[in-house]
Amino acid sequence: MSDRCDPMVFYNRIRPFLAGGQNVAELPSGVFYDQGNKEGEWKQLRGGSNGQSTLLQVFDKVLSIDHGSNGAGTANFHDEMKEYMPAEHRRFLEQVERQRTIREVVMSLPAVHDIRVAYDAAIDTMYDLRSKHLSVVERYISVPSSKSRSERVAGTGGTVLNSFLRQARDNTKAAKSSDVFPTM
């Protein structure tokens, strides 16, 4: 992306097409979906988000990366994103959630150094992925938004962007086994 796409071009010309109609000041009623006969309905849907990736949610589940709830007693962002996935993907995630996690297996074994090292390497890889995502967001969204009239930097999925991504990254690091048991 960095080789061929200028951050200002992405922010001003491409990103608006990825945004949804939920939590957008300019679209207080959301987006009107016309059925072709001047009838339809207004919908407030989130825009595209990394949280809609089934694969990332599977990794979070099997590695026991806990993103918690949003504090309002409602489903957290990651749970809400499941509603945007194909039904088969949601069912697959439900099956994964019923299984024992890799972390549970690792922690149930005697202190086997190689297994913990491998588990922590998987956590580190997820942490690196989330760090890279955060740096791309900062370059392509945060910096360009500071040059525009935006009051609040929100992700296309409607989250308060940088703090949300930092929290997801920090939650990832917290899943390391070496945080529970010292490495040998």
Please provide a written account of the structure.
- It contains seven helices and two strands; from the N terminus they run H-E-E-H-H-H-H-H-H.
- The chain is mostly helical and 184 residues long.
- It has one domain: Methane Monooxygenase Hydroxylase, Chain G, domain 1, CATH 1.20.58.
- Strand 1 and strand 2 (40-43) form a beta hairpin.
- The mean pLDDT is 85.
- Heme b binds at residue 133.
- Keywords: Heme, Iron, Metal-binding.
Overall average pLDDT: 85
**How many helices does DSSP assign?**
7
Structural class: mainly alpha
Radius of gyration: 19 Å
What's the shape? globular
Widest sheet: strand ordering: 1-2
Binding site for heme b: 133
Pfam families: IDO (PF01231)
Keywords: Heme, Iron, Metal-binding
GO biological process, one term: 'de novo' NAD+ biosynthetic process from L-tryptophan
Descriptors:
two-stranded antiparallel sheet, mainly alpha, 2 strands, 7 helices, Trp/Indoleamine_2_3_dOase-like, about 180 residues
What's the SSE blueprint?
Elements: H1 7-14, E1 31-34, E2 40-43, H2 54-62, H3 77-81, H4 87-98, H5 102-108, H6 113-146, H7 161-173
Helix pairs in contact: 1-6, 2-4, 6-7
